[in-house]
């Protein structure tokens, strides 16, 4: 990977950490409506995500580059195989402000996004969607550096 792109990716991941440290309460109040069980679920997910980012950022550039293919992060494109019919589809996990259903850009807070965030290649995940529950296998992960940080 080009060193300048990797440097931009590292900066992007650091900005995610800063965002979750400094803006989380505003973000949470805006996007999480249920303050009961959902609050705890989202809090736990964010804490695991922050820990994962810290571990990744502690690695040298070559190890970080390899790690970007081993875990689903905000900005990762995830190719999944639907077990039932053998259909493959890719989703990009993004902030709620960056969703684009026509291009399979899904919020990490959506039911599918929650299941895919932090998933690894070869993991089996049950995706819950309006059409029901479907088991998929994560086939491939690639981090798509999206330039600047745009979570609002």
Please summarize what this structure is:
By secondary structure, this protein is of the alpha+beta class. The chain is built from five helices and five strands.
Written account of the structure:
The radius of gyration is 15 Å and the shape is globular. It is α+β, with helices and mostly antiparallel strands and 152 residues long. The longest helix has 21 residues. The chain has 5 helices and 5 strands. A 5-stranded mixed β-sheet has the order 3-2-1-5-4. The chain has one domain: Chitinase A, domain 3 (Roll). The two termini are 29 Å apart. 41% of the residues lie in helices and 23% in strands.
Helix content: 40-55%
Mean residue pLDDT: 87
Order of helices and strands: HHHHEEEHEE
Task: Let me know the CATH homologous superfamily.
Answer: Transcription elongation factor, GreA/GreB, C-terminal domain
CATH class placement: Alpha Beta
Name given to the CATH architecture: Roll
Describe the global form: globular
Oligomer: single chain
Q: How many structural domains can be distinguished in the coordinates?
A: 1
Protein name: GreA/GreB family elongation factor
GO molecular function: DNA binding; RNA polymerase binding; translation elongation factor activity
Domain Transcription elongation factor GreA/GreB C-terminal: 74-142
Pfam family, one: GreA_GreB
Task: Provide the descriptors you would attach to this structure in a database record.
disordered C terminus; 152 residues; single chain; Chitinase A, domain 3; alpha+beta
């Amino acid at each position: 990977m080009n060193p300048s792109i990797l440097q931009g990716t590292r900066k992007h991941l650091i900005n995610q950490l800063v965002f979750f440290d400094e803006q989380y309460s505003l973000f949470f109040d805006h996007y999480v409506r249920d303050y009961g069980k959902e609050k705890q679920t989202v809090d736990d997910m964010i804490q695991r995500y922050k820990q994962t980012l810290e571990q990744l950022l502690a690695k040298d550039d070559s190890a970080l580059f390899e790690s970007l293919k081993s875990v689903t992060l905000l900005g990762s494109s995830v190719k999944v195989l639907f077990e039932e019919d053998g259909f493959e589809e890719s989703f990009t996990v993004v902030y709620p402000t960056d969703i684009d259903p026509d291009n399979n850009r899904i919020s990490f807070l959506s039911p599918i996004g929650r299941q895919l965030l932090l998933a690894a290649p070869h993991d089996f995940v049950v995706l819950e969607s309006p059409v029901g529950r479907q088991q998929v296998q994560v086939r491939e992960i690639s981090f798509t550096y999206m330039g600047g940080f745009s979570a609002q």
